[in-house]
Amino acid sequence: GPSPSRVGARVAGGSAGAGEAGHFEPARKLLSRPAIVLRDQDSGSHSGVSIGTPWGSLKIPHSKSKSPAPNGNWGERPLLLQELARPLLFTGTMLQIFINDVPGRIETPPQTWGDLLVSLDEQVAGNGLLLTSARFDGVEEPSFRDAAVTARRLSDVNRVDVETAAPAAFLRQCLEEAIGPLQQAADATIALSARYRGSDLTGCHEGLTALATELRGLTSLVAMLGVLQIDLGAFSSEGVAAADQLERFAAALDSVVAAQESQDWLTVADVLEYDLEPAIRRWVALLTAVAERL
């Protein structure tokens, strides 16, 4: 296949015979810039212009009407000025990048999503923004910063869409979206505690696994607050500082795991009701206070 760094194309369109140079002087002048190579291509009944670029080959059709060439001769000429007046058409694969639905621009074609992500992060950071979502050919990728995703090659992707937001607005949205599920997790903790006190433990372990999965998001959210330099030390709930709340929350989870491993179901129920559920409620109050201050 053609080299990705320099692809040439011959475009048929004129009727110049073999050996006729054609009138390509305007194209040479306008396209005499780095990384672009222009070449006359005349062969038999085909004549045209080959323009090689790092991204693909530019297709420039010939005029079907006669017009005076720059040297005063009449002949067929590339419609170069008309082509430059509208978006370029590449015959090779062209990756389209849209930032907030606006076409973006990159200087160097990326090989992987990780390469493109670094470039986009730098670009939007200059405007005080964060990348908050990414789509590949219309498909949302929630884990677009994970290593497994950043290693993805873009050779089979035609379009990448990303969205940005101001850090404070993005964080407020994340907090508001997390508060509701945390309240539900607190309710589920009480219900699960009651089931562990009963004689039928069917579904209890699955419920505990689901609860742990939901609460894992809280630890990720707290870590993100630190990355964004949100000082949790300025917040407290029920007189308990954020740092102490985090320690109590972690201790409650450890106690649940230990009791479960020893099959002490009554202790599991007690820790869920008297330690973990209050800890979740305090985090709901604290995160609400943070969101209101942003």
**Helical proportion?**
40-55%
Give the overall shape, derived from the CA principal axes.
elongated
Overall average pLDDT: 73
Based on secondary structure, the structural category is alpha+beta
Report how far the terminal alpha carbons are from each other.
Answer: 53 Å
Helical stretch tally: 8
Q: Major sheet, described briefly?
A: 5 strands, mixed
Rounded radius of gyration (Å)? 31 Å
Order of helices and strands: HEEEEHEEHEEHEHHEEHH
Strand order of the largest sheet: 6-5-9-7-8
Strand content: 5-15%
Low-confidence stretches: 1-92
Count every beta strand, where a strand is a DSSP E run of 2 or more residues. Answer: 11
Written overview of the protein:
- The strands form four sheets. A five-stranded mixed β-sheet has the order 6-5-9-7-8.
- The chain has 294 residues and is an alpha+beta fold.
- The longest helix is centred in the middle third of the chain and has 30 residues, at 167-196.
- The chain has helices at 25-30, 80-84, 113-125, 147-150, 167-196, 204-227, 242-261, 265-293; strands spanning 37-43, 46-52, 67-68, 74-75, 96-99, 102-103, 130-136, 139-140, 159-165, 236-237, 240-241.
- The protein is elongated and about 65 Å long.
